[in-house]
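Researcher: Good morning. I'm working through a list of sequences from a screen, and I'd like to move beyond sequence-only analysis. For each chain I'm collecting a predicted structure so we can compare shapes side by side. This is the next one on the list. No need for commentary yet; just the structure.
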Amino acid sequence: MSAPAVAVRPAGPRLPHGRGPLSGAVLAHLRDATGPLPTEQEAGRADPYGPDLQLALYVLYELHYRGFAGVRDDHEWDPALLSVRRALEQRFLGALRTDVPAAGAEEAMAALLLEPAGDDGSSVSHYLQREGRLWQLREYAALRSLYHLKEADPHAWVLPRLSGRAKAGMAAIEFDEFGAGRAEGIHARLFAALMTDLGLDTTYGRYVDPAPAEALATVNVMSLLGLHRALRGALIGHFATVEVTSSPGSRRLAEAMRRTGAGPAAEHFYDEHVEADAVHEQVVRREVVGGLLADEPELEPDVAFGIGATGLLEDRLATRLLGAWRADRSALRSPLTETPGAVRRHRPPYDRWLNGPEIG
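Model: Good morning. Structure tokens for this chain:
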């Protein structure tokens, strides 16, 4: 009997363009081209936060989500690609463990409740609330679409690794994120409506190429922590950070959408998160984190690490965004293209690309 044919996705996200030898080799392999994949030594020498490693990781992780158009489905479990992914993950995770200060879960959770004033210039949501322009909100939405169009999917990996209160609390929050049984309420769908208001393309993965490494890293860390059972405590720390900080940040972003006239769907997405995540915060603190540490107290350092790693990567992204926007230039690697009906006032000073895009 002949072996069954290997499925090739006829549609789906397009493969992005490479950003160096690591991502270039991975992408060539996915296109079934000949040539060696990166070695463990090459991965170990790469910048752990740099564009080449982060793009390679992003592409490898996406094989476990939607895949790519024209790429065989069995590449998801290609042993050679899994070996490369392991080496890249070790480099990324090792850097995070070095750069994230040690703390206890209780201390780290308490720090999340200290709402920043925003006057130190480090908060993206404070900036957008006070003075952000519509073209900056468009860039922010384009970058966040790499997560929000699959919102809650990376965290769902942890459900089989939990039990008791932690599992019940996590499932309850995920149920809300997935629309509470209503397809029209799925948060990923609500974000697509926000993007439509802003004149953005809602195609899944559309804005990978314009995204700088700092944005890719904030998405990759979710997949890194979610796909490894040994990192379940850190994934819960990441999830706690998202839920505890979401409500006040969403309130500011909703005000930014209203102030700039972004549109009703753009306002609704963040208004929805103000209400929902205020409830989720209590569930995640008491049931998810509390339940996990009651069952597995030895995971407390991992929970704290997940909180710290999330903060570190979000701070790096904020530095990138605010540094560019305050200089009146785009934070993206290449300009956004307008979809039909988009308003001209959305357009940033894209003449900055006359000498080529930024690297990142």
